[in-house]
């Protein structure tokens, strides 16, 4: 058993930065943390890592060396803040955004680090929000249904453009030279563990949810060949690898990684995992019926169930995908905090910014304060939360945002509140899909940065009609990773046991207000009418507008 003062480190890789957290094994006390922002952030307009070449619409790339810099910077800084010595650390674990893909050589070198490929966009990391593979995803879905592939129903009937197969097929069809040079198509969650240990293995979470790995196998070569004859060997040649279970020891910390981090060589490194999934034990919320919503730039909804069910539009059902012995379900919304940030950056007049500065508030705080004084429905608006497409339940990234009901009297806080409400309506749509499919949701547990907005949390309770519990930690994914590091180090038998000691939540922190619930039921009916009209084929104008935009942008880039 580890010493009484032993600690573990969790490293949470987000969209724009990585966070390291030092946690005491015995009780989950968070002793110190540090954040390192990625040097290249997200490349979604130009290839800033090379010469600033313009990128097509819907692209989102990153530089893998930025992830290693987190280990070199944030881990030592977190240790210093915690006031612990390296010898107290017995394990480290990481979590990552998913599906984030790295094309590598056989040795694990990202292709963008080879000089001959530095100017090729497909040689870089495809971030989770890279949505330019929608055409490939559409073909995968159409073929799967036409052939009656059994695995498609484990994903609610749809494979997302965010996932491994669609993105891999896009590489093949748009840059076959990069595809040929790629020996491994690696989840970033596994690539960073590879850098820590010197050994490559896949994690069961992303293999199941993002890699169509069900019942011990992937889609077969015949299916892949029907998509594209050159794609037939994708699984055997690029993707397939040994799979590690969650909480398992992936290996010992390598000498190189020990030098980067200042940690002892050989300590336990846990199998990679996903930011949302590690958060469930951090909130001590792994029982069936407890849906954990990790709310940040996007929202991921995860929950366990004691049986397998087919839930329309979910992101997957994987046995042991969250914790051992239960079916782990995942759904999500591609844009939440990102939508609020877009609105503040692009749709707010200078007078609001000036007032916020004068009062010492952020623009978000000021708009929330103004919006909170309104009765439900007073702004006269309904919005669709599809500014970054729809991950669940429609699984269609060709969809786009909509605000209906604007007049000359509409104020900035009106639009802001309508967007807040739209994301809660989106979560209610997901919850209802689970309930209708025999996987009841009885408690909504919120983690992530957005839980700081108490008005938003009450709004979610009123719109969903559910009590909302909140995670105790302000660093849920990093704590969740630390919990898995504790399991990998042998301190606890599994993540559930570790979470019961090291994690926690505030039960029923927000409860539904009956009058608001009734008022929101009326607005939600309007949201669902718009949701089904624009999302289920009533009017495909959103798809047509995106096609027009792509043509115009292509002409602009080619000029």
TrEMBL record:
EC number(s) stated in the UniProt entry for this protein: 2.7.1.16
Protein's UniProt keywords contain Nucleotide-binding: yes
Single GO BP term: L-arabinose catabolic process to D-xylulose 5-phosphate
InterPro entries hit by this protein: ATPase_NBD, Carb_kinase_FGGY, FGGY_C, FGGY_N, Ribulokinase
Annotated Gene Ontology cellular component terms: cytoplasm
UniProt entry keywords in alphabetical sequence: Arabinose catabolism, ATP-binding, Carbohydrate metabolism, Kinase, Nucleotide-binding, Transferase
Enzyme class: transferase
CDD domains: ASKHA_NBD_FGGY_L-RBK
Domain annotation Carbohydrate kinase FGGY N-terminal: ranges: 8-279
Reactions the enzyme catalyzes: D-ribulose + ATP = D-ribulose 5-phosphate + ADP + H(+); L-ribulose + ATP = L-ribulose 5-phosphate + ADP + H(+)
PANTHER family registered for this protein in UniProt: FGGY CARBOHYDRATE KINASE DOMAIN-CONTAINING PROTEIN, RIBULOKINASE
Family the UniProt entry places it in: Belongs to the ribulokinase family.
Protein name per UniProt: Ribulokinase
Organism listed in the record: Nesterenkonia aurantiaca
């Amino acid at each position: 058993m580890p010493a009484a003062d032993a600690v573990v480190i969790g490293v949470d890789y987000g969209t724009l930065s990585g966070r390291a957290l030092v946690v005491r094994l015995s009780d989950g006390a968070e002793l110190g943390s540090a954040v390192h922002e990625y040097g290249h952030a997200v490349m979604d307009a130009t290839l800033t890592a090379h010469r600033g070449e313009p990128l097509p619409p819907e692209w989102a790339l990153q530089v893998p060396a930025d992830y290693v810099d987190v280990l070199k910077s944030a881990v030592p800084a977190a240790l210093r803040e915690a006031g612990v010595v390296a010898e107290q650390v017995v394990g480290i674990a990481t979590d990552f955004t998913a599906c984030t893909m790295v094309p590598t050589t056989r040795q694990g070198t990202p292709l963008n680090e080879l000089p001959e490929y530095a100017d090729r966009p497909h040689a870089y990391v495809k971030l989770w929000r890279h949505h330019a593979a929608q055409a490939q995803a559409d073909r995968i879905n159409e073929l799967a249904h036409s052939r009656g592939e059994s695995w498609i129903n484990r994903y609610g009937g749809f494979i997302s453009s965010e996932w491994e197969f669609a993105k891999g097929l896009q590489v093949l069809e748009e840059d076959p030279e990069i595809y040929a040079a790629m020996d491994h198509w690696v989840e970033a969650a596994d690539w960073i563990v590879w850098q820590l240990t010197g050994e490559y293995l896949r994690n069961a979470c992303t293999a199941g949810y993002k890699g169509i790995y069900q019942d011990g196998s992937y889609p077969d070569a015949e299916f892949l060949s029907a998509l594209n004859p050159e794609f037939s060997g994708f699984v055997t040649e690029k993707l397939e690898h040994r799979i590690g279970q969650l909480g398992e020891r992936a290996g010992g910390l390598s000498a190189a990684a020990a030098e980067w981090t200042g940690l002892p060589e050989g300590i336990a490194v846990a199998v990679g995992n996903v930011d949302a999934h590690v958060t469930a034990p951090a909130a001590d919320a792994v029982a069936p019926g407890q849906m954990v919503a990790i709310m940040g730039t996007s929202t991921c909804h995860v929950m366990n169930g004691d049986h397998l069910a087919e839930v329309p539009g979910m992101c997957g059902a994987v046995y042991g995908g969250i914790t051992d012995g239960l079916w782990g379900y995942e759904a999500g919304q591609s844009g939440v905090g990102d939508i609020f940030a877009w609105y503040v950056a692009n749709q707010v007049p200078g007078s609001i910014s000036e007032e916020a500065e004068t009062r010492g508030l952020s623009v978000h705080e000021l708009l929330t304060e103004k919006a909170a004084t309104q009765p439900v429905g007073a702004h006269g608006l309904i919005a669709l939360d599809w500014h970054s497409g729809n991950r669940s339940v429609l699984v269609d990234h060709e969809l786009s945002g909509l605000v209906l009901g604007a007049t000359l009297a509409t104020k900035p806080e009106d639009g802001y509140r309508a967007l807040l409400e739209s994301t809660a309506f989106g979560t209610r749509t997901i919850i209802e899909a689970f309930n209708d499919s025999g996987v009841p949701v009885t408690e909504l547990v919120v983690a992530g940065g957005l839980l700081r907005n108490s008005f938003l949390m009450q709004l979610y309770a009123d719109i969903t009609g559910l009590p909302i519990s909140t995670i105790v930690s302000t660093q849920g994914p990093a704590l969740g990773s630390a919990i898995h590091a504790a399991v990998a180090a042998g301190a606890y038998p599994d993540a559930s046991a570790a979470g019961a000691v090291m994690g926690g939540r505030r039960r029923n922190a927000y409860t539904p207000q009956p009058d608001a619930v009734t008022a929101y039921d009326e607005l939600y009916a309007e949201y669902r009418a718009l949701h089904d009209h624009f999302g289920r084929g009533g009017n495909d104008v959103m798809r047509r507008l995106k096609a027009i935009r792509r043509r115009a942008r292509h002409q602009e880039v080619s000029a």
